[in-house]
Amino acid sequence: MRFTIAQLEAFFWTVRLGSLSKAAGHLHMSQPTISLRLRDLEQALDVRLFQRKGRGLAPTADGLALLPRAAALLEEADRIMLQTDPAVVTGSIRVGFAEGFAMTCLPTLLETVRADYPLLKAEYVVSISYELERELNDRRLDLAVLVNPIGRPGMRLVPLGVQDTAWVASVKWGLGPEVRPADLCPLPIVSNQPRSAMFRQIKDWFATAGLEPLRHDLCNSVAVIGHLVSSGVALGVLPVRMMEADVKAGLVTVLRPVPDLNHGRVYASYPEGGLTAPVSAMLKSIQKALDAIDYLKVDGPR
């Protein structure tokens, strides 16, 4: 008796989500169907894959050993399906984007997806990378584009490149072209929350001189931070491409930090075993859109 891809899929999502009911909901199947597939898989492999843990299920040692191999087989099965008919991709996908990245790249991406995959239904979620990682981990997202992600177990990270970021200030401050931590320490700073990539960039930069900004306000919106910076009420670390219009309008100056900032490493992330046809199509569209607008730098030593 051989195991099937459907049995491995039921096993994989039961482990990842921790219960039969959640796996059934994710796969749009009944709970008895999931139970039957797990039983048949255990019989085919002649091992016990789960044990009861409270009201849920936990993998046995044999189950944990099977998990990475099952994930690899499921991804390979998806690749084979995509090669069979790569032009037709249907279904839906929920994909998240770091806000600063989305403000520049999302218009081109939407046009790319509509042109290349007209039957794909996409929902776009915009937030800070930390929140997107949490939603991805909780399976509320199928894919996310993250800046300087923390990285979580069970998630694949696909490096895309480097998002150029810099200190940006209103021309009224008369700063530049070079700035050091001591120059900006007395001035008002605004950033995302402490767990964000932006906050970490700022704290790490000031820490090179053993300093902290005297006034560091927080805001959950990158777009609003850009507006605050161009209005002259605070300074911020922002994606350079996002601020191009304000630079051309003479409202802000992009400053050259000494030492350099830790620039934003951009990754696409999705759950192991989650390389479905919609996810693969969106990954291709993201890369195509980034190439079209020449958004990212090649990652490498600085």
UniProtKB/TrEMBL annotation:
Write out the GO MF terms: DNA binding
The similarity comment for this entry is:
Belongs to the LysR transcriptional regulatory family.
State one Pfam family annotation: HTH_1
Q: What is the protein's given name?
A: DNA-binding transcriptional regulator, LysR family
Organism of this sequence: Bosea robiniae
Q: List the InterPro entries hit by this protein, alphabetically.
A: LysR_HTH_N (IPR000847), LysR_subst-bd (IPR005119), WH-like_DNA-bd_sf (IPR036388), WH_DNA-bd_sf (IPR036390)
Query: Which portions of this protein are annotated as coiled-coil regions?
Result: none
Specify the HTH lysR-type domain's residue ranges. Answer: 3-60
Assigned keywords, A-Z: DNA-binding, Transcription, Transcription regulation
